[in-house]
Structures are given as C-alpha cells and as structure tokens.
Amino acid sequence: MSYTGTFRIWRGDADGGALADFRVEVNEGEVVLDVLHRLQATQAPDLAVRWNCKAGKCGSCSAEINGKPRLLCMTRMSVFERDDVVTVTPMRTFPVIRDLVTDVSFNYAKAREIPSFTPPADLAPGEYRMAQVDVNRSQEFRKCIECYLCQDTCHVVRDHEENKESFAGPRFLMRIAELEMHPLDVADRVPAAQEEHGLGRCNITKCCTDVCPEGIKITDNALIPMKERVADRRYDPLVWLGRTISRRRG
Amino acid sequence: MTTTARDAGGRGVGGRGVDSPGRAAIGARTLRSDRWWLPPLATTVGLLIFIGYATVRTFQQKYFFADERYLTPFYSPCVSLGCASEPGAAHFGMFLPDHPLIPYAALSLPFLLLFRLTCYYYRKAYYRSFALAPAACAVPEPHATYTGETRFPLVLQNVHRYFFYVAVVISIINTYDAIVAFRHPTDGLVVGVGNLVLLVNVVLLWCYTASCHSCRHVMGGRLTHFSKHPVRYRLWTWVSALNTRHATFAWTTLGTLILTDLYVALVASGTITDLRLVG
Amino acid sequence: MTEIERHDYDVLVIGAGGAGLRAAIEARERGLRTAIVCKSLFGKAHTVMAEGGCAAAMGNVNENDSWQVHFRDTMRGGKFLNNWRMAELHAKEAPDRVWELETYGALFDRTKDGRISQRHFGGHTYPRLAHVGDRTGLELLRTMQQRIVALQQDDFAETGDYEARLRVFAECTVTELLKDPAVGPDGAIAGALGYWRESGRLVVFSAPAVVLATGGIGKSFQVTSNSWEYTGDGHALALRVGADLVDMEFVQFHPTGMVWPPSVKGILVTEGVRGDGGVLKNSDGKRFMFDYVPDVFKGQYAQTEDEADRWYDDQESNRRTPDLLPRDEVARAINTEVKEGRGSPHGGVYLDIASRMPAEEIKRRLPSMYHQFKELADVDITAEPMEVGPTCHYVMGGIQVDPDTGQSRVPGLFAAGECAGGMHGSNRLGGNSLSDLLVFGRRAGLGAADYVVGLERRPAVQAADVDAAAVLTLAPFDAPAHGGPDDAENPYTLHAELQRMMNDLVGIIRTETEVAEAQRRLGELRARVGHVFVEGHRQYNPGWHLALDLRNMLMVSEAVAASALLRTESRGGHTREDHPGLDPEWRHRVLVTRRARDGADSTDGAESEQVVPRVVVEPAERVPMRADLLALFDLTELEKYYTDAELAEHPGRPADPGRPADPVGGTA
Questions:
Q1: Nearest CA in chain B to C168
Q2: Are residues A18 and A123 in the same domain?
Q3: Of B4, C224, C278, C339, which has fewest CB within 10 angstroms of its CB?
Q4: What value does the mean pLDDT of chain A take?
Q5: Cβ separation A139–C536 shorter than 8 A
Q6: Where a domain ends, among A80, A101, A122?
Q7: How far apart are alpha carbons B175 and C546 in whole angstroms?
Q8: Are residues A109 and A94 in the same domain?
C-alpha cells in the first residue's frame, strides 16, 4: 500500500530560503507529519518542524499545506492523489525561524494584553455556582488548542503587518468573548474589545472559522456576538445622535 | 520562542503582507492549488444577477399585481399613487408620488436593501467577492492598507440591527400579502399555485430574517446568564439553530424572490395562467 | 567557550505541564522570582492530552464520597505500594486544588445545582472526576497558563515589566543540573545549563531551587500515548546529580490506545468512553472482561452483563462493570485476548459505544474522541466500534521526594507530577494524575519557596561545571573520536531501536530472560550513543535535540530494566510471566535507583560513563503505613496484600497472640 510521494518543502530562515523537492515513502494511514518525520530520519535530519502530541490536541504543528493553513498531524495523506505534489511551508503571517518553524511570539504578546478572569471579590473557592447552559458558550471557546491557524489566516494581519499592533486576532478576540460570556466574570470587556483589541478591523470573512481544527465557530459565536455587544453600547443610533448633537452644541 | 523582536530579514523593505521582512521568503503570493477563485466568482455572478433583475423589475412599474390578488414582494407595500393602476394592490394606502424613479415600494425597498447590505453573511460575501478582502483564505488581498469596519462608511455596518427591526415589519407585511391573497374578492377562499409560491417565499423570508445574527443577539445572545431567562434562552436556541443556515437562507431567498416575482409578473402579464388548486 | 547567556532566579521550574505551572504559580505567589523552562511552546505540554478528568472527593454527585474513600481507592489501585503519605495528602487536598482552578477561570462541566460535575472512572468508588467533556487536561493547562499570564499582568501593573518575577523560557531544554559542592555535606543545587532550541545557544540559570516537572518516559517505548517530550529528562537529570528514583519497574500501559492506522498507534482513547457506557468486546462479540476479575477485586464488580448495564443508572444497588477495572487489569486482559486469537484485525480488541448510545449523545459526551477517530482513522465511533489495544501511558516510578515538600535527597532539588515517584504505587488510577500534579505541583512550589527563604548562603554555579556541561551538550556535533565516519550513529536509528527493544522485552509482560536480554542490548546502545553524530548547525536542529534526549531515555530505560529484573512478582504495572502472583514480601520493599558511584563497575570507559552514567538498583524497606490510615481498611482486604507480621498492630486483629496466621496466597 505504500508509494513514493513528492513533497516540496520550504527550507530556509529569516534571511531567505526556497522550496526543496523530496521523494519519500508514504504508507497507508499516514498524515503529513509522519512523512516529514520519515524525511528527518532518512534524508534531512536537520529539517526543523515544530510538533508535540501528534493527535491534534496541542496545536504545535501548524503550517501551510498546498497554501492552506493546517495542522500537519491532522492532514491525512489520503486526501491527496498519489501523484500530487504536496507543498509544505511555514505559516506566512509570522516571522520564520527555520524551515517550517515560525516565531509565534506575537500571539503570546497579545495574550498578555487581555485582562484576565475577574471573579466577584467576595466569592470563596468552592462556592462557585454556574449553570451548564451558562458555561456552554465559553466552553466552546476554551476548546481552543492555540494552534494560531486562525491568526495565521486572518488577512487583517496576514496581509497587513502594520495591523499587528492594533489587532488581537481572532484567537484573542475570542478570548475576550469567552470572558465576556463567563457567568462569573465581572469585568467590562466590551469597550476595550473595540478600542484596544481591534474588533472593528474584523470584516467577518470567516477564514478563522474555516481553518479552526477544533471546529469552533469563531465568527458566528464569538466575533459577531462581540460586535453586537459593541453595537449595544456604541452604535445605537439614538445614543449616537444624542452625542453628535451635544458635540455640535458644545 | 522568545519574546525579543527579531530583526527584519535580508529582503527589501518594500515587501508587505506575506512578503513582509522576516516572514518566510516563499515567492508565490499564494500556493493554493485548488480553484479558490471559484466561490468569489460565483458570489459575484449570483449577486449581479439579483441586482440586475431587481433593478429592472423595481423600476418597471408594471406586472406587479395579478388579478388573482398576488402582489410581488418587490412592490410591497404598494404605497405609490401609481399603484392605482392595479386596484387591490395597495393594502396600506397610496401617498408617494408616481414617478419613474420612485419605486412603488419605496418605503420598504431601501430598508430591505440595507438589511441585506449590512447582513453579516452578505458582508462576508461581498467583502470576499467584490472587495477581494480577501478573495479566499490565505490568498493575499490587493489593498495597500486595511482598516476593516472601523471607519466611515463601513463603521455603519454596526447599525444592522435597526434594519433588522424594519425587516421584521416588512416581513409581517409580506406575510399579510401572502395571506390576503388566499381570499379572492369573488370566489372566497382559494388556493392557487401562486398562493403557494407566495407562501413558500414568505416562510423563507422569515427564516432569513429570524436567522439574522442581530436577531440572535437581541433574542438572548446579549445575556450572560441564560439560566435566569429560560424563555429567552429557548428563543436564542431556536434562532441559533436557524442562524447556522443564515447563508443558505440568504441565497435561497434571493432565488425565491426572483422566482416569486417572476411568477407574479408572468401571471400578471398574461404570459401564463395561474393554476387554481382549491376553490 | 564564548559568552553564555545567564539568568538568575530564585526558583527554576523545569517543565511547563500542569505540575510545573502549578509549582511556578505557588513560588511566584510566595514572592519569589521564578522561571519556567520548557521544551515546547508555552501551553503545549502533554497535560493537554489528559482527557477523562481530575479526581477529587468533592462529593458533588455522590455525597458519600470523602477523602478517606479516595485514599482507599488510590491505595487499592496501587496495590498498597503507594507512598501512603502522598496518597493521604493527595486525597485530602485535591478538592481545594480543583476549586482553586475555578478562581483562575476554569469552566468545568456542571451538575444541575451548578456545582462541578463528576464522572465515573476505573477504580474510583464514586463519580469523582471533575471534567470538561473529554478535554480536561487542556482545561487545566490553559487555566494555569492564563493564571500565569494574570500574575505577569500584576507584575506589569506594578513594575512595567511582565517578566519581572515570572518568566517562561519556552523551547528551551535543560541538559544538566549544576550543584555547589561547598553547600552542605553533599552539595546543593545551584542552577542548570540548557540550550535554546531555536538558536542552539547555551543558557545558564543560577537558581538555588529547581523543581523538576518533566513528566514521563513513554518515548522510550514504541507504542505510547506520550508526546516526544516524554523522554525522562527529569528522571535522568535527578539521577545525574545524585537523587534517587523509586518504583521504576512500574510502567502503566493504558488498556485503550488506538491500534490503527499505524501512524497513530498508541494515541489514547480515553477511559471516559468506558465510564460513559462503552464496553470491551473480542472478535466473538463477547464482553470478555467478566472473565478477568482478579481475586483481590472479587465481589466489587458486576458478574453479569445485566447488572453491569444497570449500574450506569443505579450505582447504589448494582456493582460496576468490570470494563472499569484498574488499568493494569484491563491491559493484561486485552493482551491475553489478542494473544489467544480473539483480537480485532489490527491486533486489538473492540471498544463499542456505538451500539449503546445514540449518536448525538456520543458526540456530546465524547467530542474529541469522535473528532480524533474521524480525523485520524476515518472511523465514525457513533456507527462502528473502535479498535483498541494497550499503549505505554504513564510511569508510576520517579524521583523519590519528601511527600510534604517535594524535595529529593539533593538539597534544592524538588520534583512533582509524573516525574516524581511513589504517589501511585504500582498502578495509577485514571484521574489521579491531574489531581496529583495540582496537589504536588503546589507543594513542590511551596517547598522550594520555603527552602530558598530559609537558605543561609546562596549556592553558586561553578564555572568548571558549566564548561563541562557545555562540552557534553555540544558533543553530538563532534565527529566520533575513534573509528571512521562510518561509525557515526544516527540518533533516529538508535531511538527506533531503543523503542522497539523496550516495547518487546520490557513491555507489558516481562520475563527474566527477556529483561536480561534487554539489559545486554541497553549496554550496546550505551556504547553506541557516545558515537552519535548530528549534521547541520545548532539552530533548531531536531537531530541534535533527539541525540541529547536519547541519553536520558537510555538512562531511564536502564533503571526500568534493572528494577523489572529484580522484582520477582507481578503487581500493577509490572507483570512477570515467570512470577505471576502478588508476593507480600515484595509489598513492603521498594526498589531504589541511583547513579553508580564514579568509576565503580564501569567497563566501557569514562566517556560513555559521562554521557550516560550507569545506574544501580537496590531494594529498601518501605515506611509502614500510619496506624490510623491502616485502620481505614478491613483486615480481610489487607490480608490479601500484607504479610502477617505487618498486620499485628491492626485494630481489627484480635489481641490474642495465639491466633493462627491466615495463609496468604502467593507467599513463598
């Protein structure tokens, strides 16, 4: 059942690089990461690949396969024809370190900018009571394995380096939504979502949802509800009209 | 992974987007080998067909009301003085001046247009197809700068919910149109094929309207504690279920609007005869 | 040597899994400057793979639960080999640790009255596992990761620097611990040397306290649920600086790993599948577990399928299904079924939930299992049974620590989580690892903080030690000293050989001849590992990383093999085909692994001795259980495990000295 497949893999670092062709054995039931491991063991021992659990649970092996952001461990070889050339490159939104490994520190920096869970001051451990229906929504977002494929595919930063400063990206806008919908979080997160974390830059074109390996409905369940909460506060036309009129007078 | 900033790579400073300094120098703007251009192209064609058809019909000011009491949704509510040309078409009075550039349903059409224009699904559709921002995932967009929906005019997308409210009223009017059509002035209760067409159309319009993201928010999405609002939670659950098919309804209703209008126009112009099923 | 990057911290935590993060949170909250070093990115540790839940006797679902019941279950699961003090602390403190996570923002599944829901699991008397669907480990790790971010935000608000008191050194590997020989009689921990995976640059940490939280050793075995990080680093680092390991013969093979396709062989299928109603069947469609209830558990498990099925709805009046026996029993049963020709096409058995529950229910309860089989094996678990077989999952053995503080015998060296030994005895119950890492992660962080605060003089890193460690770390880039380039060994090849050999010879079923053969082959590998040569440069070079990890795996494998050879009985995660029964004379003995003294019985020269120091394993006596804890068990149960002499003090035993001793099965 095995055959020899053709792979084009980007090799290089921040100073430059190129796609390199490899012919490598592919066996039944394998995923792209298996083939990369075989390459390491047989032809390219220093091929840099970031991976960890190999079961789609840790979100380490994010890369782009035939131009699409994907997890290497969750892309089965059976989705390709035997004579397809499988092109593997690093994620193209983040600085490259080497070969398929990128510097994802952007995401860790953004994570720090989101204020943490804020429980009621007087609630002691063990006294937390929450209904399942109230935690369902945030639980969906907490399925996130932080593979950052959504951050990678989001054109707001992928195509505009200059937006990285002012845009948290789908993963962290979803984190804000998670806390905003947390039944015991008392912080107000709506104004900051728009003003500091760039929710308004999202044009809901849904690529984040499309690439999410956990199947989280990022756009429909996190980003749009957050936009609606912002609209509650800021874009109510009556409030806006009142503000505009008073500004004119002032 | 370190948090120290990395130096820009050895490439020219001119690169932007995926060619920005520091990112992997891959060369090709996209390596997608599938037909990624097909969905935006199909969207463009689909939307243009609808816009073309709707424009022509809106300003045609003919063939909008069949003797069987079928009023096309493009002319509902018919409030122009011109509606007098088809007695029985105006259910809510006639007061707008009859002018070739003023649609007979000028009270509803702009809001329906704005409802769909600001709809979260259509936004995705036309941002991808018309604005190419982005045309497809991981395909670079052509714009030098991008501010999303932070500035005028796109910041106005945020008022979507108010058009939703208006759309609900218009859906009620459409429903009224569909229901009164069952009562023939002379034959009493009747069911013709046209009645079923109007009915199916209005049901799907309701599906589209009710599956709106703003509706989902208003019904219960804005709540933090569903458990304290069981009724609104139930409503939210229903709307959420519909909402997952919002895109489907968006396209289906464009189709049924055209088909419904076309059917009414064909019957009204005498091109075809409506088939009476009951009565 | 060129200038080496240096950092100075109070507490250095090695490993960013659950135990490491919990230790770091504690040390930082005590006001100490804390660093976390981890091989992967922050938030990717193997803890995310834990699925079923976190055991804590909160009594939310069944209020009869208590720490005493949890303690008893844990000791039974470990076949009374557990360090009883650890089991006691664990059972008592787990609920507080879980509740604490809620204050960090964790969102567990809820009961109807809004408390944390708890689920059934193998070996636990009551529903006890706090869980979030089947991704509980991810929830724990993400919660603690976010807690660390919260602490960094506090520091930022105060000092303007997120990393003022708590910094994560991600993708950084520690290769050697450094001691200051001038402190105390045998020296004390002074720091560690490591390298950045990204750049290959070396880095030296000065820290008077090091908390090892490096997890397990699964990557020494071919079929394993463990990720690449599980190379026994903490075990090896501790041995190298003179700490002891205990119980290294006890390796848990999880009964249900995926067996097909080959590329995912070993990946875990959560025990939650069985807890929620899934049953094991052989190729005849028979629920075979009813034939495998061992004597020590007779009476505690259902004897008919009807009773087992009733138990899911009514646990009060029915006994649980034997599908939920402790993991070692189930793994052995599956092994036997397959060996006797009743296995599935790919060498496993069937785990069937599809025929027992509606599809929607399965997807709701076991979303990530559904996802995993769909994506990786193209199997729809709502429509067809899964094929499963044993997979190396967890090492019960580990660094010997003081239960209360987590300190090893080396001053300043602490350990917590899987890399610490003793807590689980010969077999760990499902759900007890997440609670273990919370309870002992915190205690190790606390222990380290107290140790640092109490220090009179700060140990100093010795320049010569740094140089020596650096040379050893970079050695794989040097062409082999003797022999031609043909003698250069490929780390990937050596690793594959080690894994195959450990799986075949020191795996789930062991014999004296096979383990002795394993030792011989380990000797060969240790000679060859000195000749490992890697191509390329130091920047993100996986071949080099593996070459270094390989040393640790080899050292740990030697500890496992030597311990397995000595223990001539079968118990928990150690099954000797040539010694099939429990032997009470072995219950009170512990096998201790330590580094052989320099030069002693070394046959292959100082070079390989330095790369992979030799280990020796010796038996020692266990500390007898405190009387009040022993009294929690019925005498009849204890008599199955204990020697008669050990039970003389039990309150259940009549004072009459003339009472004849019960003969105990398996006693020689």
A1: B2
A2: no
A3: B4
A4: 94
A5: no
A6: A101
A7: 70
A8: no
